[in-house]
Amino acid sequence: MKITGSCQEGVLTLRFQGELDHHVSQEVMAALSERIDAFLPRKCVLDLRGLSFMDSSGIALLLRAEKKMRQLEGSLLVTGVQEQPGRVLRAAGADQRLGITE
After folding, report:
1. Can you tell me the distance from the alpha carbon of 26 to that of 65, in angstroms, rounded to the nearest whole number?
2. What span, in angstroms and rounded, lies between the C-alpha atoms of 96 and 68?
3. Start-to-end CA span in the chain (Å)
4. Which of 20, 40, 53, 81 is such that its CA lies 20 to 30 A from the CA of 92?
5. What is the number of other CB atoms lying within 10 angstroms of the CB of residue 14?
6. Do the beta carbons of residue 49 and residue 15 sit within 8 Å?
């Protein structure tokens, strides 16, 4: 699992590549939290175009990130959701809670 990104004008954009499962979710959440804490963005965009697989731990990670952004009075946007992660999000109903765009 690889995360790259940048922060410009209060928008933190993070790009995920690889597989997001229970083996890496704690490490990914720590990295995500660290970047949010460092930049304190108004908006966090998680670009999942490079995410080939996600299990329920990925859903938990996205919901925790959304909660963290709300606590900072910011917002979270999830974009580029591929087929398999999209099925997992829809099956859990998380697509209704998260801001998801193409």
Report:
1. 12
2. 18
3. 21
4. 40
5. 20
6. yes
Look-up of token digits 């304190």: 40
Q: What is the maximum span of the chain, computed from C-alpha positions, in angstroms?
A: 35
| pLDDT tens-place string over residues 66-95 | 999 999 999 999 999 999 999 999 899 888
Residue with tokens 């959304």: 66
pTM to 2 decimal places:
0.92
Q: Is the pLDDT of residue 102 over 80?
A: no
Question: What's the CATH number for 2-101?
Answer: 3.30.750.24
Query: Alpha-carbon distance 1 to 99, whole Å?
Result: 22
Query: Does residue 10 sit in helix, strand or coil?
Result: coil
Q: Cα–Cα distances in Å, from 101 out to 16, 28, 38, 76?
A: 15, 22, 25, 11
28, two tokens: 């990914």
Tell me how many helices (H) and strands (E) the chain has. Answer: 4, 5
